[in-house]
Amino acid sequence: MAFTFFSTKLSTPYYYLTVPSSPHTLNSLVSQPFPTFNCLLNLPLHHHSPYHGSRTLLARSRNGGSPVRTGGGGGGGGRGGGDGRGGGDEDGAFHNRREALMVLTKLRRPVETLPKDLAAAIEAGKIPGSVVERFLELEKQLIFRWLLQFGGFAERLLGDDLFLAKVAMECGVGIFTKTAAEWERRRDNFAKELDFVFADVVMALIADFMLVWLPAPTVSLRRPLAISAGTLSKFFYGCPDNAFQVALAGTSYSLLQRVGAIVRNGAKLFAVGTGASLVGTALTNLLINARKVFDKSFAVDGEEVPVLSTSAAYGTYMSVSSNLRYQVLAGVIEQRILEPWLHNHKLVLSAICFAFRTGNTFLGSLLWVDFVRWIGIQRTRER
């Protein structure tokens, strides 16, 4: 039997085996005892090895189960599987798994040293080698190594290595752009409507993080759903986080699933917007009442912001306007246009993303002021 061995730690051996396509030799190898394998790659032992160029991969579980053929190649290996999925899915998973394991082998990185969710995704063939390479690159930096321990951050950083920079962009320019937009719309009434301005800025800052988080393209590392999960849960589980994001190799999304991403994020953003507005308007009303005590003239002009109606309006605005704008920004403009174009120029890419996100934030502030005036929650005050 032909195999080679390497280990980065004595207690965790790794055996890499290539099996020829010849059924006679395959049967003779399968019938022989061999060590328990953590992972097996379709790699030749030597260029002069009699097994060089074989296309069949065998795998054996940790508990010593029988070898299982998981994929075929040019020799006419079988397709499909017993899980009911089409051949395309299984082929995609096989190639993803092979790519990922080849990357780890090249860098002599044991699978056991990876986070459990990432290791499970590799084993399931959900992620290609490029994602593993991105993880290993991000892991070199302390801040990213810490964030990669958390599933939500790991999914987003693997989907977009500039995710953290975009969070900083949104929150960093939030106060300036929101305040500038309020001034643009209110002008001479800015000082008189300072209570409205304060409420809008507070609501926006609370929501800024979630507006980057929810529509961000991701690499799914989620665990499989329980068999008892309902139909709706199963449907949304299969939806992408961004309706327009590029699907990884071996993965595809239907039109219905992409629409489902918009609906799901819209529901989440409605809850976020409503909650943020409740906090912001409640604080504003406290400020207004405090000013009335010390400034009687302000008591005439000032009026309490309607908490419930403003909160519901902001939740609706975020679920529709903000949801669509940020999905298009992250999934179309950034991932599908700017990223392929400027992939090797991260500084330029970051600068252009900053410009687009700043403009989007300012536009959102203008639309919010128009929206609340249109539905009658806020009125223009007379001079």
Automatic annotation (TrEMBL):
Coiled coil: none annotated. It holds the Pfam family RETICULATA-like. Residues 70-85 have a biased composition (Gly residues). One of its GO terms (cellular component) is chloroplast membrane. Keywords: Chloroplast, Membrane, Plastid, Transit peptide, Transmembrane, Transmembrane helix. It is a multi-pass membrane protein. It is found in: Plastid, Chloroplast membrane. InterPro entries: RETICULATA-related (IPR021825). Residues 57-92 are annotated as: Disordered. The keyword Cell cycle does not apply. Its main location: plastid. PANTHER family: PROTEIN RETICULATA-RELATED 2, CHLOROPLASTIC-RELATED (PTHR31620), PROTEIN RETICULATA-RELATED 4, CHLOROPLASTIC-LIKE (PTHR31620:SF8). Belongs to the RETICULATA family. This is Protein RETICULATA-RELATED 4, chloroplastic-like. The lineage of its organism: Eukaryota, Viridiplantae, Streptophyta, Embryophyta, Tracheophyta. The gene is LOC116192727.
